[in-house]
């Protein structure tokens, strides 16, 4: 709704606030001993909206209005669809301790929402490529570090509401600056997966070359 009224920076800030809340909800539930399957499913549904649909809509409103409609609609739809697939896989597959399989949807949504603020400097085709790349990373098998497993003392949980309130106040007063600042670590985190993919491809090619060399020598 903020994006529809032209308040793009504040719209992006709301995605960042949602990321902050998403990082704390599980810890709060565990601290209060209130975990449940209901909460797990509701969390996934919330993630699809907050980090799939909302960022894609922000990007569409800001940057995709003047490109071919079919292409704009397709790219806008693919992003939350891949995010939903990523979440569904997360709910049914056993993960690797300390890692996520595929780019987490909050990080992908954060990149899209903050990247959209650079619309005056970056043309729409680059946004399209980035969104498709992020969509692929979400459903890929690349391992991403899981910072949610970092322990936080239970006493610190009590201060979480204060931290959130202060962060929101600062973000509301400096929405564009904060959004663009948060963009940097988010894009580095997403880029980590690209590097992993590239390294894995190099290792595979090296292994294939070694196998081919062994076969050649045996002949």
TrEMBL record:
Residue stretches spanning the membrane: 6-24, 45-64, 70-88, 100-118, 124-144, 156-175
Predominant subcellular localization, coarse grouping: membrane
Alphabetical UniProt keywords: Lipid biosynthesis, Lipid metabolism, Membrane, Phospholipid biosynthesis, Phospholipid metabolism, Transferase, Transmembrane, Transmembrane helix
Bilayer topology annotation: Multi-pass membrane protein
Enzyme Commission number(s) from the entry: 2.7.8.8
Catalyzed reactions: a CDP-1,2-diacyl-sn-glycerol + L-serine = a 1,2-diacyl-sn-glycero-3-phospho-L-serine + CMP + H(+)
Enzyme class: transferase
UniProt-listed Pfam families: CDP-OH_P_transf (PF01066)
InterPro entries in the cross-refs: CDP-alcohol_PTase-I (IPR050324), CDP-diaglyc--ser_O-PTrfase (IPR004533), CDP-OH_P_trans (IPR000462), CDP-OH_PTrfase_TM_dom (IPR043130), CDP_ALCOHOL_P_TRANSF_CS (IPR048254)
Subcellular location: Endomembrane system
Signal peptide residues on this chain, from the entry's feature table: none
Entry's family note: Belongs to the CDP-alcohol phosphatidyltransferase class-I family.
Annotated protein name in UniProt: CDP-diacylglycerol--serine O-phosphatidyltransferase
Origin organism lineage: Bacteria, Bacillati, Bacillota, Bacilli, Bacillales
């Amino acid at each position: 709704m903020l994006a529809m009224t032209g308040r793009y920076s504040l719209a992006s800030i709301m995605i960042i606030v949602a990321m902050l809340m998403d990082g704390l909800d599980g810890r709060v539930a565990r601290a209060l001993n209130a975990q449940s399957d209901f909460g797990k499913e509701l969390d996934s549904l919330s993630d699809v909206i907050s980090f799939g649909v909302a960022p894609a809509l922000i990007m569409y409103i800001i940057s995709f209005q003047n490109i071919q409609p079919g292409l704009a609609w397709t790219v806008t739809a693919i992003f939350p669809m891949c995010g939903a697939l990523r979440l569904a896989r997360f709910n049914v597959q056993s993960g690797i301790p300390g890692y996520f399989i595929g780019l987490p949807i909050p990080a992908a949504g954060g990149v899209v929402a903050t990247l959209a603020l650079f619309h005056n400097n970056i043309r729409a085709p680059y946004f399209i490529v980035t969104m498709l790349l992020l969509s692929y990373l979400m459903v890929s098998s690349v391992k991403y570090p899981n910072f949610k497993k970092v322990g936080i003392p239970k006493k610190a949980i009590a201060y979480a509401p204060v931290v959130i309130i202060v962060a929101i106040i600062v973000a509301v007063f400096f929405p564009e600056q904060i959004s663009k600042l948060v963009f940097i670590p988010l894009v580095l985190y997403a880029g980590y997966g690209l590097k992993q993919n590239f390294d894995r491809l190099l290792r595979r090619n090296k292994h294939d070359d070694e196998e081919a060399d062994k076969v050649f020598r045996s002949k």
